[in-house]
Amino acid sequence: MQDKEFQVGRASIQFPEGPRIIGRASVVGKKEGEGPLGDCFDVIEPDPMVGCENWEDAESALQKETADLAIEHAGLVRSEVRYLFSGDLLGQLIATSFGTVDLEIPVFGLYGACSTAGEALCLGAMIVEAGYADYIMAMASSHFASAEKQFRFPLEYGNQRPLSASWTVTGCGAFLLGRQGGHVRISGITPGKIVDMGLKDSMNMGACMAPAACDTICRNFEDFDRRPEDYDKIITGDLGVVGQKILLDFMKSNGYDISDRHMDCGIEIFDRDSQDTHAGGSGCGCSAAVLAGYILPKLESREWRRVLFIPTGALLSSTSFNEGKSVPGIAHGVVLERC
User: Which Pfam families does the UniProt record give (predicted)?
Assistant: First the structure.
């Protein structure tokens, strides 16, 4: 097959065979385990410190635990995994660099904010489909306390959160991709572009990310010549209840009604009424853990046939926020199909 035949439309790529997801794992914190999807995750860590001395080390421990569990579920050993694509929310990706060092797998550190799971799956799928690796791992993590410490206020400050704010998920999701095996394949991807609507409210990231999600979903429809009904579910990463309303309005203005099949990982992972998470969950680990624990089993059991998975990210840092910059958004689309 010629390279051009992989390219579809303006930005998408189709995979005729499709890399298979042959192993997956999810590890989350106590609060996530108490939510509606608690029974779906592989491991629920009761200690937010995960036995470590600080929050950052705790997030690194989540990554290592999840990676080893995913490799075990795939029936592999570490040495068989050629490359690792992984990322987190912390400066210089320290959760990834310290968490994966003992794996001794060549690593590509990624930062796509909360869209990192999608970015890792996109890049990993291209590598496997092109034949550059037999097996790769895609992984993303976040931790509530480490994210609050870096982006907002230390927990000891006890600041009040607006209703538009989301709650960073303590969790990690990891996926092993290979050319054969498994019951779910990645049949195509639609990498996202950065969309900046000039919003500056870091406590309303759903609004900042919704335009990027809309852009990627519309581009996926156009590139693959599809309609919303061609997907059983269209699942965003962590728009929350505020961002979801904005996305649905944006989609309708573009001629698409996805309200009957849209789902958001940030809304699903917490019970908004009883868990006091305001707009919902967020963080790199949000969509990654929900994909591993909830979405893929639905495809494996044939309840769903085809899903468009779109992790969403708000591209800000403490530096950019303090300098008065806006919060651009990005969203990467991954088409998942039952084999």
Answer: SpoVAD
